[in-house]
């Protein structure tokens, strides 16, 4: 539908007459856009964003005239809230695109404010790089890291657990809040036998630590990461190297924590020294540790009530990769929630020799 077709053609349409006696009264809402030049960004190229919003709220009627948007229908209040939030985003310099609009729709559906997340203060890094949360869950995660000594970020793949933790660590290092960053993870094979890799010990464990290197490169660039590693401001090491150490004035990230044993988790958490901050990330649906005894199992019950320690759980709504990744996570969640299939006794009897 074109913008012309949506426009109000006369004053009577702009101010509809009262409904007949006994008819259901629809909600109505008007949103005024303060600057007319913002309308193009708000409605999208060829009214693409307006088409998307109409498809998301098919029971509502949206009419655009000048710099005013009139909404009627059962979802008028929510649609009005969405447009007001989008106006705030555009006014603050946020460019509306497919991803921003989709996330805004999701947050409005959850009674959350997109502007409080997408236009919130960024994690500012030297070189002009700014990292902003993209979901309400990510906002809670960042706030928890800033407010606590130890933060557990738990959730499925693609929710930004490690990436945001490295961003917070890089910011703390650049602000001289800590003297070094320590990145660690257990060297556990994910269902594959890698055999005897060539090189020294660090060369053998390097493939396990590569995701942490990748996140660091994203934050400070390859050259910046190389300089930090060379002078010891960033240390990347397998979890086994943490035993016996006390880490003072450090930002420590334990990645893939679901693959620790309970003994390893206790060992790691007792390495924390003065002036340090810790982030533990993990996905309890992807446990590869031998025997299946994960260090994250039941840990929230064990550590509950400790001051300065927080747990943040992310879910499929916080996935920031391709949309299909969130759909895959949802499919696995639905499958895991189904009751286990009961064996067929007749089939078992027929298969018995």
Which key terms come to mind for this protein?
single chain; 353 residues; alpha/beta; Ribosomal Protein S8, Chain: A, domain 1; Rossmann fold; 2 domains; six-stranded parallel β-sheet; three-stranded antiparallel β-sheet; 41% helix; disordered N terminus
Q: Return the CATH class of the largest domain.
A: Alpha Beta
Annotated CATH homologous superfamily of the largest domain: P-loop containing nucleotide triphosphate hydrolases
Q: What helical percentage do the residues reach? A: 40-55%
Determine the N-to-C terminus distance. 68 Å
- CATH architecture call of the largest domain: 3-Layer(aba) Sandwich
Shape field: elongated
Mean pLDDT: 83
Structure class: alpha/beta
Unreliably modeled segments: 1-25, 190-194
Whole-number tally of structural domains: 2
Q: State which percent range the strand residues make up.
A: 5-15%
Order of helices and strands: HHEHHEEHHHEEHEHEHEEHEHEHH
Strand order of the largest sheet: 8-7-9-10-6-11
Let me know the largest β-sheet. 6 strands, parallel
Radius of gyration: 26 Å
Count every beta strand, where a strand is a DSSP E run of 2 or more residues.
Answer: 11
Number of helices: 14
Write the CATH fold name of the largest domain: Rossmann fold
Short description:
The chain is built from 14 helices and 11 strands. It has 353 residues and is α/β, with parallel strands linked by helices.
Question: Can you walk me through this structure?
Answer:
With about 350 residues, this protein is of the alpha/beta class. The protein folds into two domains: about 25-120, Ribosomal Protein S8, Chain: A, domain 1, CATH 3.30.1370.10; about 125-335, Rossmann fold, CATH 3.40.50.300. Helices cover about 40% and strands about 15% of the residues. The chain contains 14 helices and eleven strands. The strands form three sheets. Strands 8-7-9-10-6-11 form a six-stranded parallel sheet. Strands 1-3-2 form a three-stranded antiparallel sheet, with helices on one face. Helix 11 links the parallel strand 9 (about 250-255) and strand 10 (about 275-280). Helix 5 packs across helix 6, helix 8 crosses helix 9 and helix 9 packs across helix 10 (about 200-230). The longest helix is centred in the middle third of the chain and has 30 residues, at about 200-230. It is elongated. It starts with a helix and ends with a helix. The model is unreliable at about 1-25 and about 190-195 (pLDDT under 50).
